[in-house]
Amino acid sequence: MNKHLIARSMIALMLAANVPAFAQHNDRRDDRREYRDDRREDRRDFRDERREDRRDYRDARRDDRRDDRQARRGAGPRHDLYRGNRLPANYHHKQYVVDNWRSHRLSAPPRGYHWVQVGNDYVLAAIATGIIASVLLGN
């Protein structure tokens, strides 16, 4: 009977010794799962923060309602000629067109454009439409 008791207790001890190993294996798996969940949550938080930053930037850009033209001086005697506007018809005459742009230290006008002198300022305007492409202030 002692042999059976000793054998049973030995078997019980061997089984009991393996149970924590199985539990530790599952614990490691749970630890890895928790680690992955934490990393996923961190990435999610980072994406949310980036999204909020983009929204803040868009909102700030949308709130900027100032008119830059009021802060800048335009070309011409009345300072009312800006890029994108149409050159007044009285400046389409040959006397205002700058043919010798090199002597005025201007760059070569692209095809379809010419330099026009308006007071001390120079305007690069489209020949066909009169739309101002560039303004150089002479001060």
Strand content: 5-15%
Largest sheet, in brief, is: 4 strands, antiparallel
The neighbouring-strand order within the major sheet is 1-2-3-4
Low-confidence stretches: none
Number of strands: 4
Number of helices: 2
* SSE succession: HHEEEE
SSE-based structural type:
alpha+beta
Quick one: overall form?
rod-shaped
Average pLDDT rating: 77
Rg for CA atoms? 40 Å
Helical content band: 40-55%
- Please report the distance between the alpha carbons of the first and last residues: 117 Å
Number of domains: 2
Index terms:
Nuclear Transport Factor 2, Chain: A; alpha+beta; 2 domains; 4 strands; single chain; 47% helix; 139 residues; 14% strand; four-stranded antiparallel β-sheet
What does it look like?
With 139 residues, the protein is an alpha+beta fold. It folds into two domains: 1-65; 74-136, inner membrane protein cigr (Nuclear Transport Factor 2, Chain: A). It is built from two helices and four strands; from the N terminus they run ααββββ. The N and C termini lie far apart (117 Å). The mean pLDDT is 77.
Summarize the structure.
The protein is an alpha+beta fold and 139 residues long. Helix content is 47%, strand content 14%.
